[in-house]
Design a protein that fits this description.
The chain is an alpha+beta fold. The protein has a domain of 326 residues: Kelch-type beta propeller (Neuraminidase, 6 Propeller), CATH 2.120.10. The chain has a 5-stranded antiparallel β-sheet with strand order 31-3-4-5-32, with no helix packed on it. The chain starts with 11 loop residues before the first helix and ends with a strand. This is Kelch repeat and BTB (POZ) domain containing 2.
Length: 609
């Protein structure tokens, strides 16, 4: 016989049977001994079941059980077997945190504060700070409590480029109910960092203050004003090139182990000429689509993850090779926390989908995925306010090497010599003018009414790829560029981008610092990769060198990297301290075998090439 302190094994069949019987009793209203009221509806229940589901019900058993008003959904959860209401609360919290967006973050902040839910409150506050220029005019913001308002206005993390935005938000809140809120005038205005305002703004503002409060406010503010103000987080933003699928910086993993390593996301600031690292994607995610929206939100979608315990993954020579599965994941980058936050997954698993932001929605277009040709044609749309995906009209045909951009509230998809335009309001694809050349793996960017299609590889018929797309130039090779005018529906050639003879260039078109630019990676025989940023001069139809990028700052990105531009906070990122060796390969052009250098205190030898 088992001792009293020894737990007996649970009979799962009996437990399931018991729940089924309780469900039957509830539905048939058998042996019920308490009635719960939800508005005008009555729900006969069992005290024992309710008391077993939460400490609250246990505490009120016997004297308050005759008339308790609850949500009907709670009763449904209890009767179907989730016997811990505390778990329900945690699930509700996690659900609300996941659903926070620019439209509801202020309300979520108030809810988190009301119910003392610190996780919800902090997550909502970070979104309010991030979207502050957008949310401070919302009705919910103007109805915030005085305590929450002061907490927000005093934050160093507000994503504002000018302190005038904070001042305007404070005044709008005060003026919303000036009679009742005049008592908070000094405490609210003291959160504004006056020395960050322009002199013109200061004079105009103080002249407009009520006469009876003017002297008190001015004296109090200037007495408490620090000698040097701390800038808001938004004032420290730098526009950076974000490189997805950058090679790992650890040479031992890259060259010796030859196995799958976590994808590194590298950021390069052209102004500071510094390299930073974003948090690695969750679960060693690779080959995900990437997007930076006009509101400066960074997203990644789809991709593939390595299996933890794969079987039969040995290649030639017995070397270990990673095995992957495609995923439908979707993540938003929390720039303050330098962390990826999960959002509702896509409807389809996709590898390297094209992500485009158009008319307030995010579109995931095509990509390599399971399910055959039809699945590669599928297109789905993400509604950020509802945090949900829906299918839209599929691509006219399946493309493996398509490039997508948004221009003038339409989406343009290009591959080979074809161009299709998607009209969101009609949910229809229309074939547009064809290009003069047949190229794939190109990069594209929209700038005003023009779409630039840059580089890529020539396609011979349906067979595939022939060689880098280039045009003849006096001093060697160059990268081909074609431009599409969305108003005229026509393609024309543009000036080629200069490249050195015998180079193998990789180019990525981007809009950087309000200019159409390309980031170029060139590799030459027996040399390391070299980088440069070129800017397009439309009047001269020429590509001008904007700035070279030292290989001592930005090392080898490989050929498969993708590039986007976003404004990020250097103080929230990890600066990349590691620098490559001065001579990675021997001067005679041979392999670097036998050479050694130190990485993180470990001596690493380069293999023979």
């Amino acid at each position: 016989m088992s001792g009293l302190g020894e737990r007996r094994p649970v009979n799962s069949d009996y437990a399931v049977s018991l729940l089924e019987q309780l469900k039957f009793f509830y539905e048939q209203k058998l042996l019920t001994d308490v009635v719960l009221l939800v508005e005008d509806a009555e729900f006969p229940c069992h005290k024992m079941v309710l008391a077993s589901c939460s400490s609250y019900f246990r505490s009120v058993a016997g004297f308050l059980f005759k008339s308790i008003k609850l949500l009907k959904g709670l009763i449904e959860i209890v009767r179907t077997g989730l016997l811990q209401v505390e778990d329900v609360l945690l699930q509700c919290r996690d659900y609300l945190v996941k659903k926070i967006n620019a439209e509801n973050c202020v309300r979520m902040l108030s809810i988190g504060d009301l119910f003392s839910c610190s996780e919800l409150k902090q997550s909502a506050k970070r979104m309010v700070e991030h979207k502050f220029p957008r949310v401070y005019r919302q009705e919910a913001f103007l109805q915030l409590s005085h305590e929450l308002l002061v907490d927000i206005l005093s934050s160093d993390n507000l994503n504002v480029e000018k302190e005038e935005t904070v001042r305007e938000a404070a005044m709008l809140w005060l003026e919303y109910n000036m009679e009742a809120r005049s008592q908070h005038l000094s405490s609210v205005l003291s959160q504004i960092r006056i020395d960050a305002l322009s002199e013109v703004t200061q004079r105009a503002w103080f002249q407009g203050l009520p006469p009876n409060d003017k002297s008190v406010v001015v004296q109090g503010l200037y007495k408490s004003m620090p000698k040097f103000f701390k800038p808001r987080l938004g004032m420290t933003k730098e526009e950076m090139l974000i490189f997805m699928e950058a090679l790992s910086e650890t040479p031992r993993e890259r060259y010796v182990l030859q196995i799958a390593v976590p994808t590194t996301i590298v950021c390069y600031s052209p102004q500071a000429e510094k390299v930073y690292k974003l948090c690695n994607p969750p679960e060693d995610l690779q080959k995900a689509g990437a997007l930076v929206t006009p509101d400066n939100d960074v997203y990644i979608a789809g991709g593939q993850i390595p299996l933890k315990n794969p079987i039969g993954n040995f290649g030639k020579g017995g070397k270990l090779h990673a095995v992957f599965r495609s995923v439908d994941s979707f993540f938003w980058f929390d720039a303050q926390q330098n962390a990826w936050a999960p959002k509702t997954p896509m409807l389809c698993a996709r590898i390297k989908p094209s992500l485009v932001h158009c008319d307030g929605y995010i579109y995931a277009i095509g990509g390599d995925s399971v399910g055959g040709e039809l699945n590669k044609r599928t297109v789905e749309r993400y509604d950020g306010e509802k945090d949900e995906w829906t299918m839209v009209s599929p691509l006219p045909c399946a493309w493996n090497w398509s490039t997508s951009v948004a221009a003038r509230d339409c989406i343009y998809v290009m591959t080979h010599d074809l161009t299709y335009c998607y009209f969101p309001r009609a949910d229809a694809w229309v074939e547009m003018a064809a290009r003069k050349t047949s190229r794939c793996f190109a990069s594209a960017a929209a700038f005003g009414d023009l779409v630039f299609y840059v580089g890529g590889l020539h396609v011979v018929g349906n067979a595939g790829v022939r060689a880098p797309a280039s045009s003849a130039a006096v001093d060697g090779s160059s990268v081909a560029v074609e431009v599409y005018d969305v108003n005229k529906n026509e393609w024309r050639p543009a000036a080629s981008i200069p490249a050195k003879r015998y180079s193998d260039p990789c180019v990525r078109a981007v809009v950087l610092l309000n200019s159409l630019c390309v980031f170029m990676r060139e590799t030459h025989v027996n040399e390391r990769a070299k980088y440069a940023i070129y800017r397009y001069d439309a009047e001269l139809d020429r590509w001008l060198l904007r700035q070279p990028v030292s290989e001592r700052v930005l090392w080898d990105l490989g050929k498969d990297f993708r590039c986007a531009v976003g404004k990020l906070y250097p103080s929230c990122l990890e600066e990349s301290p590691w620098k490559p060796p001065t001579c990675f390969f021997s001067a005679d052009g041979g392999g670097g075998g036998g050479e050694e250098f130190e990485v993180e205190g470990e001596l690493v030898s380069l293999p023979h090439v």
